[in-house]
Specification:
two-stranded antiparallel ribbon
Length: 332
């Protein structure tokens, strides 16, 4: 009952996010005094919730061409993109909608076998800070093809916390917890440099960088979104889209996530391994390319802040041999 009341207030617009707390908007106090108006807003919210839930059920019955896809914008990722694609193919991702943002390396050449196999849908997008344009284009052009779209970056690896369950199975089970869920928030696990100053010679990213931050590190509260495209209006934030009335984002427990942070004490369902730092040399090279969501470049201070290596974790090593096999099949 408490969760239903929160949902009604959230959808009606009476709740807002203030730092890490959900509070009543100022106008809500007036509305509480004007009970008939407040009741009308709740009824409107209930209408949206019910209408959206019925629509969700209808869309669930559609036979989609793809069930699990990824949307990504990339620039000069030739050294890493094949590993990233191979890993997610093993995780059950059926299609990657990749937007190439003015790459000057040989990324197009590396991608060609994946494009030829129709695993990658390749689109060039030119200009600065084009992340939102890429995301919104994917929703508008390809959204009808996919049941789920994950909006992540090339240094983020979606890993099932339960090795016996596929990503798709975990995602489906989470969405079943709430008929009005339009998105699922997945938390970062920030990986550090593992002590590397320069780029390691040889080896996969998952083999070279095996140290990550403790779960309580604040940046691990950041989420990325897996969405049902038909529930989304568009993106104006790289981590959290704008949802259509009646829809919202949830976590793996079915609780509403009202914005792009979700404080957790354990990873449930999916962990988003974020190889943010790599080596210091690689970080410097990457930030020199600029940002895809706004003007400027990321400060060097971010490296020293996020170079967290508290936990040695070899879980990704169990995937390395299979990833190499997939890469070999694509002649990479």
């Amino acid at each position: 009952m408490k969760q239903l009341f929160i949902k009604l207030l959230f959808v009606s617009g009476l709740l807002r996010q203030e730092k890490r707390k959900i509070v009543l908007r100022r106008r809500a106090y007036i509305s509480l005094l004007l009970f008939p108006y407040f009741l009308f807003l709740l009824m409107r919210a209930y209408y949206y919730l019910r209408k959206s839930r019925l629509y969700n059920r209808k869309m669930e019955r559609i036979a989609y061409k793809y069930y699990l896809t990824i949307v990504v914008i990339a620039k000069n990722e030739s050294a890493y993109i094949s590993e990233w694609l191979a890993f997610h193919k093993l995780q059950g991702v059926e299609k990657v909608f990749l937007y190439d943002n003015d790459s000057t390396d040989n990324m197009r050449e590396v991608l060609q076998p994946y494009i030829a196999d129709e695993y990658v849908e390749y689109t060039e997008i030119k200009g600065k800070y084009k992340q939102f344009d890429a995301y919104n284009d994917a929703i508008n052009r390809f959204g009808h093809l996919a049941k789920y779209m994950a909006f992540i970056d090339c240094d983020e690896f979606m890993m099932s916390v339960d090795p016996d369950r596929s990503l798709l199975e975990i995602i489906e089970s989470a969405f079943r917890k709430d008929g009005n869920a339009g998105g699922l928030g997945i938390n970062w696990c920030i990986y550090g440099s593992s002590g590397y100053e320069t780029k390691p010679e040889g080896g996969l990213v998952m083999e070279n960088f095996t140290h990550h931050s403790h779960i309580y590190y604040e940046r691990n509260y950041t989420i990325k979104s897996i969405v049902k495209p038909y529930c989304v209006l568009g993106f104006s934030h790289p981590h959290y889209p704008k949802y259509k009335p009646g829809f919202y984002c949830i976590d793996f427990n079915g609780e509403i996530i009202p914005y792009w942070r979700n404080e957790i004490s354990e990873y449930i369902g999916i962990r988003l391994n974020h190889y943010y730092c790599k080596s210091k040399e690689e970080y410097v090279k990457r930030i020199s390319l600029g940002r895809s969501d706004m003007l400027g470049i990321k400060p060097m201070d971010n490296f020293y802040k996020d170079d967290r290596n508290e936990v040695q974790d070899d879980v990704m090593l169990s995937y390395s041999s299979d990833v190499k096999k997939v890469m070999a099949e694509y002649h990479v």
